């Protein structure tokens, strides 16, 4: 009898990995693999470790849909967002849920905390539960995530970005940030600083920084200073960053914030230091959340149609599941909303008075 040759992981990349493949790679029975995946205690630690290692190497994800329904459909759609407490994401998720519920689907939601490792774990868990489709944020993920989705044939869509390689609903973050700089430079600002989230964890933040720098570079300018915060959704970080920028030399005449929460914090800190916005310094946000128009002064910001992003993402997933035609890329319109937090830069005398109000750091 001819001896069978075990298949290598390389030969499995273009098809779904099954229990048989895991059992062969771990050199155990399929019954042992099933026991481990079902959480049974009737397996030795050594065999359990071999099976878990084989699953990781092959990229095997238990198919919850196949276990639940012979139709391989659970009528559940998963979504992983960076931060549930972020108002923009919350509004988009609500619109997403409303759209898929109209088609008879349930939403399963998870948060990654801007950590690619966590995002991968949450996506794997959602796939294990057998979700029919998946909504992600951004186009930069853990290196294992996209190969896993493509290998399993998972219907997915990326949001808040435009990706040439994946279905997406969003906008050009770099171009959008450039709009703000175009406006501020048009007012006469040349000393411009930014308060942004950490680009290493957030491809949208990285694109916005790139857009700011490119727009300034086209005019022979550069950033006056830049403050990077760890948590781009926290108002407190906006306050701390604004205090640092106002204490810097040279002091900026305009501050571009990566989102409205940071801008809100910047406005609060400026007021606490008796720095007038916009007479002493201009501040801009990004998103145009509900409260932006009601701040004192009202916030100049980029309006991102977050509700539309959520609804269109849901529409893409539902139509793909129903085998209806739909374009793989949908771009939403971003617009600059000019309000009272921006004005032409102050003169040198006013800038000197502003600087003298800032207390020295301890």
TrEMBL record:
Chain ranges of the HTH lacI-type domain: 17-71
Entry-linked Gene3D superfamilies: 3.40.50.2300, lambda repressor-like DNA-binding domains (1.10.260.40)
Keywords: DNA-binding, Transcription, Transcription regulation
UniProt superkingdom: Bacteria
SUPFAM superfamilies linked: lambda repressor-like DNA-binding domains, Periplasmic binding protein-like I
GO molecular function term, any single one: DNA-binding transcription factor activity
Region (Disordered): 342-362
Residue stretches of biased makeup (Basic residues): 351-362
Family annotation (PANTHER family): LACI-RELATED TRANSCRIPTIONAL REPRESSOR (PTHR30146), TRANSCRIPTIONAL REGULATORY PROTEIN (PTHR30146:SF138)
Protein name, as recorded: LacI family transcriptional regulator
Organism of derivation: Ancylobacter aquaticus
């Amino acid at each position: 009898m001819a001896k069978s040759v075990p298949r290598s992981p390389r030969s499995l990349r273009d098809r779904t990995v099954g229990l048989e493949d895991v059992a062969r790679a771990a050199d155990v029975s399929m019954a042992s693999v099933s026991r481990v995946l079902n959480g049974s205690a009737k397996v030795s630690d050594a065999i359990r470790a071999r099976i878990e290692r084989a699953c990781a190497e092959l990229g095997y994800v238990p198919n919850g849909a196949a276990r639940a329904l012979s139709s391989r459909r659970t009528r559940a759609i998963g979504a992983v967002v960076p931060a549930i407490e972020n108002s923009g994401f919350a509004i988009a998720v609500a619109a997403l849920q409303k759209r898929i519920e109209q088609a008879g689907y349930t939403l399963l939601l998870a948060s990654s905390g801007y950590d690619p490792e966590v995002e991968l774990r949450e996506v794997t868990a959602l796939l294990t539960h057998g979700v029919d489709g998946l909504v992600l944020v951004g186009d930069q993920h853990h290196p294992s995530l996209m190969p896993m989705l493509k290998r399993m044939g998972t219907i997915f869509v990326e949001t808040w970005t435009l990706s040439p390689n994946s279905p997406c609903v969003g906008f050009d973050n770099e171009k959008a940030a450039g709009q703000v700089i175009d406006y501020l430079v048009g007012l006469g600002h040349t000393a411009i600083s930014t308060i942004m989230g950490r680009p290493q964890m957030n491809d949208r933040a990285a694109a916005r920084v790139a857009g700011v720098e490119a727009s300034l570079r086209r005019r022979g300018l550069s950033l006056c200073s830049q403050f990077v915060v760890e948590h781009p959704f926290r108002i407190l970080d906006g306050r701390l960053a604004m205090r640092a920028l106002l204490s810097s030399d040279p002091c900026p005449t305009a501050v571009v914030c990566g989102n409205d929460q940071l801008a809100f914090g910047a406005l609060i800190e400026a007021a606490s230091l008796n720095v007038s916005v916009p007479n002493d310094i201009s501040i801009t946000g990004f998103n145009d959340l509900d409260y932006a128009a009601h701040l004192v002064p009202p916030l100049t910001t980029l309006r991102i149609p977050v509700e539309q992003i959520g609804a269109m993402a849901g529409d893409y997933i539902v139509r793909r599941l129903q085998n209806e035609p739909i374009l793989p890329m949908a771009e939403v319109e971003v617009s600059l909303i000019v309000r009272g937090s921006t004005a032409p830069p102050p003169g040198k005398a006013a800038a000197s008075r502003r600087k003298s109000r800032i207390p020295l750091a301890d």
